[in-house]
Amino acid sequence: MLSELMVTNVGGVREASLHFRGRFIAITGESGAGKSSLVRALELVSGKRAQSSIIRAGVEEAEVRAALEMDAP
After folding, report:
1. SS3 category, 66
2. Residue 71's pLDDT band (boundaries 50, 70, 90)?
3. How far apart are CA 36 and CA 40, in angstroms?
């Protein structure tokens, strides 16, 4: 299960660290708040091929890291 997502320079997100608790997560916010950028970050950690167009304007690289936890049997 995804427990943490760290995002740097993806789309409109300069830097974010999200800690997930529980099994249901809702991401809400105003237009331009970075919701779609977080979805792109989730796609990347799920194995989707990266495109240079997701890198925040004005910087040369982006980074996405995820922490996963195993459920107890």
Report:
1. strand
2. confident
3. 6
Within 10 A of 41 (CB to CB), how many other CB atoms are there?
26
The class (CATH top level) of 2-68 is alpha beta
Which residue ranges make up each domain of the chain? 2-68
Please, which pLDDT band fits residue 32 given cuts at 50, 70 and 90?
A: confident
Mean pLDDT of the chain: 92
Nearest-angstrom CA–CA distance, 22 and 61: 31
* Residue 20: both structure tokens together: 């997930």
DSSP, residue by residue, 5-37: EEEEEETTEEEEEEE--SS-------TTSSHHH
Q: What percent of the chain lies above the pLDDT cut of 90?
A: 71
